[in-house]
Structures are given as structure tokens and as C-alpha cells.
Protein 1
Amino acid sequence: MLGEISLLERLLLVGVALATAVTAVLEFTHADPLAIFLASIVSLAGVAWIVSFGTEVVGERMGAAATGFLQSTLGNLPELFIVIFALSAGELVVARFAILGSIFANALLVLGLVIVAGAWRAEDGIMRFNPRLPNDTATLLLLAVFIIVLLGASDQVGDRASEHVVTISAIGAVVLLIVYFTFLLGYLRGREQLEPFAPRVPLWFGITLLAVGGVAAAFVSEWFVDALAPSIDRLGISRAFTGLVIVAIAGNAVENVVGIILAAKGKSDLAISVVKNSVAQIAVFLFPVLVLISLLFAEPLTFVIGPVYIGALAIMAIAVWQVTGDGEAGMFEGWALIGLFVILATLTFFE
């Protein structure tokens, strides 16, 4: 019945189940928080892959555009739960940097790796793809960056508007969501659809994976946040570095694996679709949604961040548009994006 699942995929399914079970045992036996923390990181990456695989199975009936959207949306479940649990635990710094890290990791690290893989696959060393989606997502990203830069500048100078950052953030979140859904309707209705996948396994199997993956993401995220504070204190790393690098890389394992594999197979449009959809969704869907949800907590999340990261976001948005806006990218451009992420991660480590 499931004969179309490869041996590697079967092994990964078993491995993820074992990793999650080990994490659960450590949690319920009140083991060392550091052990729970490390096990949760592995489990988060595994759960992200489970969600990705389930999305691919379901998306095989929808075509490439819808599949890319669905995969990016559900692939962000770990980040969603981590931020919600972090906010409920009062870990505002981790929550904020987990979102920022997801944007930076997808737009710089993952996109860079995808371009490197795609350029390596191409005979002339140039990865080519339809420029429409990269340009649209660059516009969405610039809109999100505009709100962040505006509120950050207001907060730094301490003007009258800085006294109302929660209200302005909430209104900005609603605006971003409206614009995003307008984009989404046009994107999913567009004529530029790639050929649909040929279904490999039954639909019920994909739906089951999504359900199991979603539940597992919620539990593992809660265990991760519970073990966070004592673990990072022992490791000697900051909450900012934990959110920006560790959470971002673990939570974005889906885009790392799926995007690179698709690019290496020569499926450039779909590879770019998965990554760029994820960048746009985090910036103008996930971030605004979490800003609105956070109004229920004692410390609400806003779009206000420090000046260093405001500058990093602005440069990132310009770099992503410059690299992908013309519909082609060379390997060195992929390495340049990766280099930007490494430099940012290094700075954050010493913050």
C-alpha cells in the first residue's frame, strides 16, 4: 500500500518517531534540562520533515504552486508553537529572535544553499527560475521591513508615536495580513502553474502525517521552551543567539532539505517557490499573526527591534531582491547570501 515510499523515507519516519519518543521520556522523567533541550532540537527538525513529507503527499493533488504554499505554511508550525510558548513563558527575546531568525535563515542561509545546489546542477552554472514570485515576495518583504524600520526609528528617537508601539504594531499587522491575502489570491489563481506531481501514496497517509506532525510540533515546542532557560545558561549562549540561529535552523529544516533536494534535481521553480513562500509567510503572515496573538499575553510582541537588526533586515531585503529579481543566480551569489547569515550569526553570538 505504501510501496512508493523509499527506504530512506521509511528510515527517516522511524528515526523521527524514536527521537520524539526519547524526548518525551526525558521530559516526563524530569531528566536534565540540557538533555531535553538538545533532544528537542533534533525532534523539532524531525517533526518539521514529517510535516513537509505529509504536505508533499497532500499537495501532489494540487499542483506545484499550491504545494509550495502549503508546504511553506505548514512547515512553519514549529516556529509558530515555539513563539507562542515562549511568549506564555515570558521569553520575549527568544520569541522575537525566533521570528527574525526564521526570516534571516530562510532568506539568506536556505535560499543561498538552494542557489548553490541549483547552480551546481545547471550545465552553465546559472540557476534559472521564473522571476515573478521572487519579485512579488521581495515586495512583501520590503513592506514588512518598512514597518519594522519605521517603528524601530520611532523607538530610538523617543517621539510621541513610540508611546503607542503596541497599537501601531497591531494596526500594521492587520495591514500586512490584508496585503498578504491579496497576494495569495492572485498567486494561487495565476496561470503560471507547474505540472502537478503524480501521487505516490494514499491521501489518507499524508493527512495522518500532517495531524501527527502538528500535534508532535506542539508538544516538542513546549518541552523545548521549558528546558530553554536553564540550558542556555549552562551553555553560556544568549537568548538572542538561541532564537536567531538554533531555533531558526532547527525549525527551518524543512526548507533546508526540501529546497536543496528540489534544486539539485533541477526543479528550480519549485525550489524557489518553497523558500520564497516561506520568507514571505514568516514576514507578512506569521509575524503579524503572532503580534495579534501576543495581545493576549502580559508582554505583547511588537515590530520594534534593535538598530543593528533593523540594518540587517534592510540589507537582507535588498540583497534577496538583487540576487533573485532577474530570474537567475550564480553559485557565488548563493555563497554570498550564506556568508551574510554567517556574519550575522557571529555578531549575534557575541551580543
Protein 2
Amino acid sequence: MNLDDPATTLARKRLLQNKRFLRLVYLDWYHHLLRAVPPDGGPVLELGSGPGFLPDVMPDVITSEVLPLPHVGVVLDARHLPIREGSLRGIVMTDVLHHIADVRSFLIEASHAVRPGGVIAMIEPWRTPWSEWVYRRLHHEPFDPHTPRWEFPSAGPLSSANGALPWILFERDRETFEKEFSSWNIEEIRLMMPLRYLLSGGFSAASLQPGFTHGFWRRVESLLESWNRSLAMFAFILLRRGYPRS
């Protein structure tokens, strides 16, 4: 299916509702986002709400998508946020940042939209020896950790991507990020989930494990936590808005 067709996102939403193992993976991700967001001080905006169900966990979240979808509150582009200055207490997203072709524009916009003390919290792909092997061989999205640029050509809002972009921004080019966006503090990068997303089959394959085994595999991953620098496929990334450092 054409990834940039809204019908594809609607089909994925139906799949996520019915695929128990994958839904439990998303539920774990959503609880990370929920714990990261300040309890008050303005609304929370979710970027790329797409097939997800974050409002089930965070009822007051403002859902958004770059494509018009019947279940999404606002249609917007992350590079041009129609948000009043300092009005948000947080921006959250799941597997979205690596689809933003001009991430600098998004970060500039977020610096205006999020109040001091507010956050950007996200779940994103991460580069490790294991994940790079998987993303390059078993995943349809581009994964290029060697590009010197943060930008990439934008062929379509969902089909364009560089899965290595979060690692590039917050690991390889961390000093550059901290100089250019000094009002954002990288508060936490928690590497996670070397196995469960693969076992869920994602949106393109059948689950390799039934839903009732999810708790078992979560425990297995907890035993592997000390190996996440080599094995993790994803990262929870938390940025907190402060004031520009002189």
C-alpha cells in the first residue's frame, strides 16, 4: 500500500486495534510518554497520531497528523506549528521524528511552542549493531547513519525517512545539537526493546508470538538491559525546555 495514502494509516489503525502483542508494545511506549509530560501548564500535542491510540492513555492530548484523518484533531506539518508562543507543556510522538525531512525547522518551531519546563518526549529507532542489521535488511525505511546532513529528500510525508536520524541528532552530533538548540536539555535517552517489536511483526507481518506472551518477553528484555548499547532497537528520548545558554 502507498504509505502516503490516508487509507494506509486507517488500515494500520485497525490492525493495531486487533493485534494484541503490537498494541501492548505501544502501550508500554505510551506510558513512557505519559510519565515524562509535566502534569499541568498547558496542553500536550501529539505529532503523527496516525494509527495510534494515545488518547486512551492521555485523554486530554491534542492529536495531529500531516494527512487528513477522521479520528485526528488537527492537520498540521511539524515544520510549521500553528501554536501560540509558549502555550504547550509538551510535544510527544512515536516513530515520527525520523520522518521529518527538515528537523531543524521542527526544533525551531517547538522552541517557540513549548513553555520553559515543558518537554519533547519521543520513542524513536536507535542505532546499535543489532538494530542496524535489522533496519537495513528487514525494514522498508532508509537507515543511513553516515549521512553528514540532518535533512533528507522529502518524497512523501510518511514514505520519506531516515531511521538513523534520532541517533545522529542526539548521539553522533550531540555537541552540534546542544550548540544550535541550547534551550533544550537532553534529559534522558533510555535504550530499549531489542526483541518485542520484532516479535510483534509490526505493521507488515504476522505476530511471531501470541499476545499473552508479551509479559514474558518484557521480562526477557529486562534481563538483557545491560546489553542495550549493543542490542536495543528503540530509544525513549526526553528533551526539556529551559532557557538558552549564553
Protein 3
Amino acid sequence: MLLSRRNLIRSAASVAIAAPALRLLGACATATRPPVTPRVSGIALRPDPQGLLDLAPGLSYTVLSRHGQTMSDGLIEPSAHDGMAAFPVEGDADRCILVRNHELGISDEAHRDSAFAAGGSIDPVFLYDRNPAAGDRPFSGGTTTLLVNVRTRKVERSHLSLAGTAVNCAGGPTPWGSWLSCEETDLSAGERAHKPHGFVFEVPASSKGPVMPVPLTGLGRFVHEAAAIDPATGIVYLTEDTGDSLFYRFLPNARGELVKGGRLQALALVEQAGADTRNWTADRGGDPALRIAPNRLFDVRWVDLDQVESPGADLRMRGRAKGAAIFARGEGMAFALEAAGPAIYFTCTSGGVAGLGQVWRYIPSLHEGTARETDAPPQVELFVESTGQDQFERCDNIVASPRGELIICEDGDGDNFVRAVAPDGLIYPIAREIGSEFCGACFSPDGSTLFVNVQRPGTTFAIHGDWSALRREARNAA
């Protein structure tokens, strides 16, 4: 299935309405596509007198919340803000719900940054795990949930919604109104933990308090990063944050009920078993003779994985032995509904000849996840690979915008940017900050506001303005 990059990418906020059209749109494929040529707009950011965010012309920001504030439930807003998604409030166009990860581990420092730093507590039944080496202190990771008035740009309610987990980095929204929070660790039960970690947890956006922490073990135990779901099939796609990571998909036994299990698989290229997609130079362990060229479509096959709870934390090694391809630190992921059909975009933070990052695009089969999949194999391509810091550096979280672009959060050294990447390869900056990474980019359901986090010490921003005018100005400056 070939998709035209001239087709606009639609955001996940519109997926619930558009999902019934996916099959129809998937038949509108075109046989030829122009190559993506990365080019950088010369648009300049305006320095912020407050020293928080430098923004593109026509944009403004509001600080929604910060680490250390007291939430509505009396607990402290944790630090290490990370992956996040926005959900509509039924019957109320002025408000939306943000569910936000906190990438905190189990150290003393993490506890000082946690929701329990001031001595607060919750019913122990809602704690997934505790640290026996620290007096059975609750693990510090998890999620918080915020009710945001998009019109006034104020938080009207906030609370801890997932507790006792560890290193909750990214995740992804579901079409049925919940957030999948992923643990970026494979910590085993032992001296520092009662239970194994490295799982995905589901947090309904509508919850007004902590949820029961149930690990979705069928989605595998590994160093999870992000998740994306195709609403037409209910299939979950998953990234892994290691230097030799796999790209996974989960075929659920019951659509929308991930707790009921399913099949976990890893992506492999039909023409090359165990392909190395990282494009690393020889001194980094790569093979230049096997370098993957951008904008070339590769047919995909999926290999089944067993023992997915992986007590030996060796799932990716066993997948590679079966022929799965490896990627360079799979991180952010976004479902995009293009005019020709669905696509899954995902980033590889340290991929590429320059090691600055790659953005990949996975194109599902017309018969995705069924016995007929080989009749029209799914495909994957290297959408764009950064060759210079002016394009992007260490791309991390991504989201599809309602205006047809990918929004990329950087996790590099020094200055970090939020950048837009248009379908034709135009790249332009939206925001810049110094000293920490951007993460959690997502749009309000009406598309007017971009929410984004600065991880340390932990701040959530609402960025607003004339997005269409900014895009025109960026193109004029290219």
C-alpha cells in the first residue's frame, strides 16, 4: 500500500470520528510519490523575557502547572513530566483532560520529586509496588490527570491517577478514551522491588482518582517507550528504548480490552532477516554497506514472540534471533490518518549516520493482522533522517497535528526545540528552551492549543496562536 506524502496528516484528536472511513481511504493509494527532501526554514524565534520558552512569531504560552504545586487531591505535583495526551470532555468544548506521565524511578532523589514528597499518601490498594530497600516506600513513577479549561487556559482540577510504577516515560492515547502509560525499565523483583517492572498500564481519562494499577502483561515486558493504536483494527504498536530495540505490535484477543491478552509480534523486513536500520557508522558498530536509504519502501513480515513476560529481560534478543529488525532507540510514536489511509510514525532518537535521529513511517496492510496480510504486505520506510542539528537533534516524543505536520520534541544537548516537519520535508521551529528536554506534545481536541512539557524540574505549557499564519511564514522563509 503506497501513500502520498502530499496527503495531510490528521491528528489523533479526530480519529474517533474518522475511524469508520479508514478502510475506504486506504483504497485511495497512489502509485508514485515525491521524495522527502529535508529543508530548514529560516524563521526566527522570539526571545522570551521570562527565560522559559522562546516562541515562533504569532505564538504565546501559558504555564499550566509546575512541579511542587499542591494538586486538588492534596498531593504534590511530581517532577519529570513526560509523555502526555489530551482527551475531549463530552458535551463541553471548552474543557479537555490531560493525562501526563512522570518519569521517576525509585531513588531517594526520585522520592523527593514524587507526589508523596510532603508526606501525603493514598490507599495502598492503588500502589503497584514499593521499594523494600527503602522501608517499603512507594515507587515514585505514575501519572497525573488535569482538567484544563482551554478557553481560560487554567487547570481546574488535578490528581494522581497511577501510582507505584517506575520510569513512566511515554505511552499513547487509546480510541476508547484512556492513556497507556509505559514503564521504561525492566527492573526485576528482588531487593529493590516486590514485583517485576517493564509493563504498560491503562489509565482511563475520566477517572477522578487513582486507578487500579493492572499491568497489561500481554503487551510484553521490556524497556517500553511509546504506544499507538489504529482505531480501525485495535492493534497496538509499541516502541522500545534501547540501542538495539525492536518495533512491536500487539494483536488483542478482544478489541479495546487489552487486559484479555493477545499476540505480541516484532517487525522484520521481508528481504533481510535481522536487518539493522540504525544507519550507524562503522566506528559505532554499523555497516555502511547495509545502510537504509530514506523514502524506500520495505515489505514487512511479523514474527511471533513467546514468553512475552520475559523474566530474563531478553525479549528483544529472542526477537532478533527470529529475524526481527533492530532500531536505534525507538521512542515517540503517533497514529496519523492520511487521505490515503492510516500510518504509524515513530522516532529513533540515536539513529542515522550523524546519530541525530530518524523518523520512520509504518504503513499497515489492507488486511493488517489477518491471515490475508501477505496478499498486501505492510511496509515501512525511513521517512526522514536528520543530517544536521538545524534539522532536529535526538527526536523523542511526536504527535500528528491537525494541520498536516508532525510535531517533534527534542531531547538533545544544550538548546532543545519543538519542531514541525511537513509532509514534504519542510522543518521549522515552534519553541526553544535550554537545559532540559521537551516531551508530551499533544493538541487540544479543537486543535487550537499545543500542550507540551519541559521535563525538569517539570512544567506543562499551553502554546496558542495563529498556527496557519505561522506555517505560511515558515514556508516563505524556507
Protein 4
Amino acid sequence: MAQRIGQYTIALDQPVMIKESAGVCGTKEREGPLGEYFDIAFPHDKLGQPTWEKAESTLQTIAVNTLLQKAVLRNTDINVIFAGDLLNQCISSTFGLRELGIPLLGQYGACSTMAQTMAVGAVFIESGAADNAIAVTSSHFCSAERQFRLPIEYGGQRTPTAQWTVTGAGAALLQKGWNSQHGVMIRHITVGRITDWQIKDANNMGAAMAPAAADTLRHYLNDTHTTVFDYDLILTGDLGHIGSTLLYELMQRDGINIAPNHQDCGCLIFDAKQQDVHAGGSGCGCCGSVFCSYIMQKLRCKNLKNILLLATGALMSPTSSQQGESIPGIAHLLHIVSE
């Protein structure tokens, strides 16, 4: 059974395998550095739907169906699906997955949702509550802009600190056991605390989330008595360029230099020089699509063997921002191995 080590970390006694994964993306993401790694890249961000919100729901539908096809499973083989997105009441997940008939537990961790769904799914699998579970998240640039900022038709100027919400979705299949052919396994989980440094700028998500990333990473390293150099990669998602720089500064206060071992999903998915995304990518679909495509392929090929996935989220809503509230951050961590 799972055991707590230290104050914040859960060690999984039985292996929980990420048996298969699928990542899908939109037009801008297809044109970025990771375009070739996605299972499906769509030529138009509306995906043939009448609204941006319906397009995002379709992203989740296609991500999960692609995952089932790759794993040679039917929807009836899945015991539970953990799903979340950025839209009010997680409507992308609700309407995207309603036809599958799979028991659903909706999740909301903002941009940290991919790590949250996988963490909860892994505990379900390890405890025996499920044999097959799916974790899936999505986001869409246009639907997120409409909800959190201004519709794209408004033509407002984006600030230099703003990040570009990724149009994409990622889905992962979790199973109990170990398979040397697909040996990617979750070993540890650290659930983050709400960290609020009173950032109020909705166009500077990196500043709001970086303190939470530093807080969770410190707790994991303390609980496991490891250092950043014990890992091939510390992958955040998605601080972007500004948030990553702030994370380096915060960790340096403890004498920890993570820069040589760190990459960020929001920095990886777009070309900062060729694509006008300002501070990088963001959104539930950023970490979800990058991890379930590019990173999972590296883990399967053993190019990466021992990584920390540290997904970050800004726990805001349009209502809280309009009322002058600050933007609390959260970060959840998964220790993933392919040895």
C-alpha cells in the first residue's frame, strides 16, 4: 500500500505504470518545435465545431479515443477517468467525455491538472480501487481568452508577461504492475500547498505559479533526501520563460541550482524566436500534451530514465480577478522512472 514519507510525499509501494499516452494539438502547436511528436495535429483550431468551447471538448474526445486505440482497449475496459480543464465547471471534460460512458471524477487544478489527475489516478490504481484508469486534460487558446481575459475578436494588446494558452489535450492510461516493454512508472507523489504571494496581474501567470513550484519541489527533496542532480530532468508545466527564471531565483535562496536539470513545457512547445507567444505556453493542455507526447516518447526510448514532473496552476477565476483578489498558485509533483 502507499506510504507517506516525510511530511508531504506519498511513496507508491506497488508499481503504477503509465501504459500508454496520447497527445493532440492545434495549428500553432503543430508549427512549433514539438509538432512531429503529437499523435494528431489539427489544421484548424475549430476542429469543425461551431464554437471554441465545443472544439476544446472535441480535443478531449479525440485524445481519449486515440489513447484507447493505441492501448487496444474499449471504453468499457476503463474503470474510471479523471479529467479536467480550465473552463467553468470543467465543461470541456463533461461534454467531451459524456458519450464514452466511463465513470468520471472531474478535477480542477488549473494548469496543474495533468499532474493532479495522474496523481489521483495512481492512488486509485495502487489501492486496487481500479485496474485501468485514464487521466486527461485539455485547453484551448480561444476558449481560455474568452473566459479569463477578452475575446480574440476584441483585438486587445497582450502584455510581454502574457503566456499563450495551448490548444491541445493529453491523455494517459494508468495500470497496476510492471511491463519491461512499456516500463514507465510513477514512484512518488507530492501534493502541493496553496501558495499566495499576492500577485494580481492575470497576464503574469508565471509570477503567480513560481512560488508554488519552489515550495513543492523543496518539500519533495526534503522528504526523499534527494538532490536535483539525482534526476535526468525536472519538468515544470507551465511557468513559461518568466516563471522559470523566477523559480531559479527562489531555489537559489536555498543554495539549489536547478537550471542545468530544468525544462518547462511552456518553453518547449513554442519557438520563442519564430512564434509570437511572448512569455511561452500555458494551459491544462500545455503540460498534458507535452508530457503525453514528447516526454513519454523519451521515457519509452530510455533517453530519460528518472524525472520529476512538476505541474503548476494559477487558482483564479474571472470572478475573483474582477473582485480584486490575488492569484494563488499550486504545484503537484510526480516522480516518474523508466528503468
